[in-house]
Amino acid sequence: LFTVRHGFPYQPSSMAFDPVQKILAIGTQSGALRLFGRPGVECYCQHESGAAVIQLQFLINEGALVSALADDSVHLWNLRQKRPAVLHSLKFSKERITFCHLPFQSKWLYIGTERGNIHVVNVESFMLSGYVIMWNKAIELSSKAHPGPVVHISDNPIDEGKLIIGFESGIVVLWDLKSKKADYRYTYDEAIHSVAWHHEGKQFICRQGKPIQTITPHGKQPKDGKKPEPCKPILKVEYKTTRNGEPFIILSGGLSYDTVGRRPCLTVMHGKSTAVLEMDYPIVDFLTLCETPYANDFQEPYAVVVLLEKDLVVIDLAQNGYPIFENPYPLTIHESPVTCCEYVADCPADLIPALYSVGSRQKRQGYSKKEWPISGGTWGQGTQSYPEIIITGHADGTVKFWDASAIMLQVLYKLKTAKVFDRNRSKEDKGSAEVSDEDPFAIQIMAWCPESRMLCVAGVSANVIIYRFSKLEVTTEVLLEVRMQYELNDIESPDGGCGGGELPNPGASPQTSGPPSHPSTSSNNSDGGNMPCLNTPLKQSAGFQVDSVVQLVWVSGEPPQQITSLAMNSSYGLVVFGNSNGLAVVDYVQKTVVLNLGTVELYGSNDPYQRQPRSPRKTRHPTFFICKDNIFLIFFLSLYFVRAVPTSMLTLLLCGCFTSLCFLLTVLLSVCPPRGANPLDHRDNSFSRSRSSSVTSIDKEAREAISSFHFSEAFARKGDSTLTPCLYVGTTLGTVLALAITLPPAGEQRQLQPVIISPTGMLVRLKGSVMRMAFLDPTGSVVPPAYEPWFEPNVTADGEEREKVRKRRPVSVSPSTSQDLNESQYAVVCSEKQAKVISLPSQTCISKASITEASFILRADVVQMSQGACLACFCANGHIMTLSVPGLRPLMDVNYLPLTDMRIARTFCFTNLGQAMYLCSPTEAQRLTYSQDTCENLQEMLGELFTPVETPEAPNRGFFKGLFGGGSQSLDREDLFGETSSGKASRSLAQHIPGPGGLEGMKGAASGIVGDLARARIALDERGQKLGELDERTAAMMASADSFSKHAHEVHRKGSQDLSAAE
C-alpha cells in the first residue's frame, strides 16, 4: 500500500528549518515527522516507537535531520531520497534527553540531559564521545543544589570553543571546551526557558542573571523606580540583527497577569516599536528566518514561522504592519471538525476549473505580496492522467471541495450550508444552553453527481439541502415563511388497525380529487425544535446555490430521527433519504414529495418479520409541511412512523396536496401561533437527538432502518424484458427491496405530470446491514447511473436558448432498453458480513462470499479498476480486502489499520482506480492506494526534498579583526572530542542501533553529513592518495627504466667484448 498524508500535523511539538535548503520540519507528540518544501513538495515519516518528538535539528545543507524523542532516543534521517529513512539511532538508557544542539558545519552533536550533563555524539558514526560536561563541574563548587535539567545549549558565534549552558533552575554557564572549565556563571532565582546570542558574541539575551539591561515588554513601568509588575514567563526569545537598522527581538509569552482571557501573542520588538500579534491558538514554537546560516554575521531576518497547536503562520517582517503570508499548504482541513468525506476519481475534466473559478472569489485579502519563503525541494516528474476531487463535510455546516489530482491537496471551493438557516431565531427558540451542546449545522451525509453538478447534503438536524451549480450570482427573496400541515383523521378500527374514509382512485387527476384532511393547529405537531429558514432575501454567490430544503419535523414534542442514508439522481430529478422509521422521495424538479412511507410498507404483504405496534402511544400518521417562496420550496416531512402506512396514502400525498393548497394557505395564516411562542415548553428535556425515547418500547425487528440506496436502470421485476428506472433500498436487517420509477416524458411534461413510484418486492436478503449496492453489465463492468449534463440554471437569454435548456434530455449510460433477455445484468450487494451477486432478471444468486465472521465491514464499494471492477471492503479489524466481481474470489487481504477511533469509520471511503482515504487524526487526511499501477504513478509524482545548493560563503573577518583577534575563533573539534584525546564513552550509557535505511543510504548520507569543509578535506586526501600512487608508479617506472638501461648497457658491453675476441 502506498500512502500520502495531508493536513495539519496533529499535536505538533517541535519545529526546525534549513535556511539553505529552505525546508521546514515539524515533529508531533505521536512521533510523526512532516517535511514541507515548496507548494507541492511535502513528506510524511513516522518514528517506530511513536514517542513524542521533543526537538529537531537540521544538518544544514547536508540533506539530513536529527530528531530527539521523549523516549530518550536520537535518530538521524536521510533526506536525500523521496522517502526519508533512519540511518542511525542512539538510545540512552541512564539519562533522559532534554535538549540538543548541532553547530553549523559541525559533525559533533551536543546532547543535554535531565541530570544536567552534556554528552557529545559524532553524527557520522552516531557514537558517543568520551568528552562529557558534568553538572557538578559546570556550577559553583560551593553550591550543593542540583541545577536541574539542561534547557539550552549554544556556542558563541565568534568563538566555537565557548559553549553557553542554561539550566532549568536559572543558572547559565559559559563553558570553555578546551580548558574544560566554566569561564562565567550567572544565577537567577527564576526558571530559564531560552537564551539568544548577539551575532558579535559579546552579549546574549535570556530571562535571568545580572543583566546590563532589563526589558519587560508587557509590564507596566512604575515611575518611582520600583520593579515592574510581574508578568508571565517568556517561553522563547530570539535576537536577530540587521546591517542597516535596529535589531529584532522576537518573543513568545511575557504577557502581564491581568490580561485574563487574552489570546496567545507573539511580540516583535524593532527599535522603539513593539508589535503584539495575537494568535488563534496557543504557540508551540517559532523560528526566525534569516538570510544567512552563519551565526557570526548580521542575520537580516525577513520572516517568522509560528507553529501553533492547530495552525502554521508565517509573518512577513519586511512589510509594515507585519502581514502574514498566504499559506499554500492544505492545512485547513480541520478548520471545523470533519464529519464525513467523499472521494471522486476520474471526474469530468471541466469540473475542477469551474470550481476553482468560483472559489477564487472567496479568497481573503491583505496577505503579504511576497512569495512563500519555504521554497525548497523539486516537484516530481509524474502527472495524474485523470482529475480527482475530495469533498469534506464539517461540523459547522461547511462543505469543502479539494483538488486531489496532484500529490498535494488544493482547496477549490467552500460552501456554507448554515446560511440557509436563521441562527438568531434558532437560539431564541431553543435557548442558548441547548444550542451550545452540539453542532446543529453539522454535515452527516453527502450525495453528489459530478456530471450534473448537483449536490445534496444531509445535516444532523434532520434536514436535506439540494444545491445546483451556477456561475452567476442570484438573490432569493423569501417573502414569507408559511407552514401548512396535513393530518389525516385517525379512525381506530376494531382490530386495532387503521381505517380511513374514501380515498381517491390511483388514476384520479390531481385537479379533481382532494384529501379528507384538515388544517391542524395542534402544538403537538409543531416543529419548534427545527432549524428555522431565513425569511429575508438570501444573496447566493456563484457556485452551489440552494434549490430546495427538506426538513423533518418534531412530532408530539419528540425530535425526528437522524437521516441514515441519502442518494440522488440528476437524470430522474429525485432525491431519496431515509432514517430508522422510513424513507421519503422528493422530486426537486416539481418541488413535490413523491413518496413518504415507513420501512414496513416497503414489504407489503410479504413482510418476513412479525412486528408489534408501538405501545401505548396512539397511532400517528406521517405529516409534512411546505414552505414556499418565489425561488424554492422548503419541505417539512415527518418520518415518524408508528406502524404500516396504508398504501392508498401514497396517492393521497401525490394528488391531494395541490387541490387544497390555496384554501389551506388562507386558513393557516389566520390560526398560525405567534413566532415568539414556544409550544414545546412542556416536553422532556432529557431526550437525545440521535435517538427517540419511544424507540425503546419496540422490539428489534420494528426498528429496521434504511441503510443504503441505489438508483439504476435495471430489471425491476423477475422475468422483465426491458430496463426501467429503479430505486433499490437496503435495510439494517439485510434486506434489499426494489421500487420501480415511472417518469413523465422529458420537457414540459416533466414539469407537470407526477412521478410514480411503486414497490416491486424483495430482491435478496443478506446477513447484516446492507452497506453497498451496484450493477454490472454482461461484460462485468460497473453500470454508472444515468445523469443530466450540467447547464447554467440562471440563464438570462430568452427564446430559443431557454427552450433548449428546458428541453435537454438526460444522458443514460445504462444498456439499451431493447437489450435481449439473455444479456443479463448483475446486482452486487454487500452487507456487514457477506456479499452476493444476483443475476437479473432471473433474480438468482450466482455467487456468494462470507467476507468476515469475527469482525464487520465498515465501508464497501464496487470500484472500477484499470483492468476491471472489484469489490473493496474495509473491516473493523483493520483489513482491506478486495474481491472479484461477479465471481467474488479473494484478490487481496492486507492488515492495514485497526479501528481505533470512530472517526476512521465515519470518514473512510473508496473510489475508482484503487484508491481510498480517511481521516487519520482530527487534523489530517490519509490517502492510500492498493493498485500497483496507481502506486507506481504516485511514486513518480513524489517530489525531492534535497536539491544540490552551494553553501553561502562565510563572512569576511576583515583585516583588523584578524590582526587583533576580534574575529571568529575556530576549534578543532575532531582533536578535542576524538577518541585519542577524550577516550571512549561508557557502553552502558547509550546503545547504537543501525537504521533501516540500508548500507547504500548510509554511505550516501555519510558523504553529505561530513560538510563542505570535510568533503573538501576528503577530496584532498583522495587526491593526495592518487598522487601518491602516481608517484609510486612513476618511481617504479623510473627504476624499471634504469634497470633496463643498465641491462642494455651490460648487453652492449658484453657484445663489444665478444666482437673484440672474435676479431
TrEMBL record:
<dbReference type="InterPro" id="IPR001680">
    <property type="entry name" value="WD40_rpt"/>
</dbReference>
<keyword id="KW-0812">Transmembrane</keyword>
<dbReference type="Pfam" id="PF08596">
    <property type="entry name" value="Lgl_C"/>
</dbReference>
<dbReference type="GO" id="GO:0019905">
    <property type="term" value="F:syntaxin binding"/>
</dbReference>
<dbReference type="InterPro" id="IPR000664">
    <property type="entry name" value="Lethal2_giant"/>
</dbReference>
<keyword id="KW-0813">Transport</keyword>
<dbReference type="InterPro" id="IPR036322">
    <property type="entry name" value="WD40_repeat_dom_sf"/>
</dbReference>
<dbReference type="GO" id="GO:0015031">
    <property type="term" value="P:protein transport"/>
</dbReference>
<feature type="region of interest" description="Disordered">
    <location>
        <begin position="493"/>
        <end position="534"/>
    </location>
</feature>
<keyword id="KW-0597">Phosphoprotein</keyword>
<keyword id="KW-0653">Protein transport</keyword>
<keyword id="KW-0268">Exocytosis</keyword>
<keyword id="KW-0472">Membrane</keyword>
<dbReference type="GO" id="GO:0006887">
    <property type="term" value="P:exocytosis"/>
</dbReference>
<feature type="region of interest" description="Disordered">
    <location>
        <begin position="1042"/>
        <end position="1063"/>
    </location>
</feature>
<dbReference type="GO" id="GO:0005886">
    <property type="term" value="C:plasma membrane"/>
</dbReference>
<feature type="domain" description="V-SNARE coiled-coil homology">
    <location>
        <begin position="998"/>
        <end position="1058"/>
    </location>
</feature>
<dbReference type="InterPro" id="IPR013577">
    <property type="entry name" value="LLGL2"/>
</dbReference>
<dbReference type="Pfam" id="PF08366">
    <property type="entry name" value="LLGL"/>
</dbReference>
<protein>
    <recommendedName>
        <fullName>Syntaxin-binding protein 5-like</fullName>
    </recommendedName>
</protein>
<keyword id="KW-1003">Cell membrane</keyword>
<keyword id="KW-0175">Coiled coil</keyword>
<dbReference type="GO" id="GO:0031201">
    <property type="term" value="C:SNARE complex"/>
</dbReference>
<keyword id="KW-0677">Repeat</keyword>
<dbReference type="InterPro" id="IPR013905">
    <property type="entry name" value="Lgl_C_dom"/>
</dbReference>
<keyword id="KW-1133">Transmembrane helix</keyword>
<comment type="similarity">
    <text>Belongs to the WD repeat L(2)GL family.</text>
</comment>
<keyword id="KW-0963">Cytoplasm</keyword>
<dbReference type="InterPro" id="IPR042855">
    <property type="entry name" value="V_SNARE_CC"/>
</dbReference>
<dbReference type="GO" id="GO:0045159">
    <property type="term" value="F:myosin II binding"/>
</dbReference>
<feature type="transmembrane region" description="Helical">
    <location>
        <begin position="623"/>
        <end position="642"/>
    </location>
</feature>
<feature type="compositionally biased region" description="Low complexity">
    <location>
        <begin position="509"/>
        <end position="526"/>
    </location>
</feature>
<feature type="transmembrane region" description="Helical">
    <location>
        <begin position="649"/>
        <end position="671"/>
    </location>
</feature>
<feature type="compositionally biased region" description="Basic and acidic residues">
    <location>
        <begin position="1044"/>
        <end position="1056"/>
    </location>
</feature>
<dbReference type="InterPro" id="IPR015943">
    <property type="entry name" value="WD40/YVTN_repeat-like_dom_sf"/>
</dbReference>
<keyword id="KW-0853">WD repeat</keyword>
<dbReference type="GO" id="GO:0005096">
    <property type="term" value="F:GTPase activator activity"/>
</dbReference>
<dbReference type="GO" id="GO:0006893">
    <property type="term" value="P:Golgi to plasma membrane transport"/>
</dbReference>
